[in-house]
Amino acid sequence: MKLTDELVVLFAEQRARIVAALGRLTPHVFPVLPGPQARTKLLGTRRQGFARAWATATAAAGVPGLLVHDLRRSAVRELIAAGVPQHIAMKVTGHKTVAVFQRYAIVSEAEQVDVAQRLQARVAGFEPPRHVLQGREHNPTS
Fold this sequence. Notes:
54% of the residues lie in helices and 0% in strands. It is mainly α. The protein has two domains: 1-48, no CATH class; 65-124, no CATH class. The longest helix has 18 residues, at 5-22. The protein is elongated. The model has no long low-confidence stretch (mean pLDDT 86).
């Protein structure tokens, strides 16, 4: 997956933090680093969970209670709204099946109103065929 320039910079900064804290690189982006609650034998290993860190980060960002899963759903909605083809959006979000991808493609009330308005505008100038106006079915075989 191609990274944005901003992500490349952020990963480089994280790499520098890891080397500064541990004196070496690890295969993990967010390893256990020295701190008040870190056990020496775990330094540099993969974090086993990040619930507390996530809660702190979301509270600091002003969105307490936000779930990681909410971000995936938001990504699907934003990709669809941006007109990204479904097969590309699925690749970006990691969805392997269309069925699961579609469960994330939740339609908002505003989008439903927009569709209704577009449909209304399209049919506003529609004139039914004459055979419908005369109250009879058109049967092309008779």
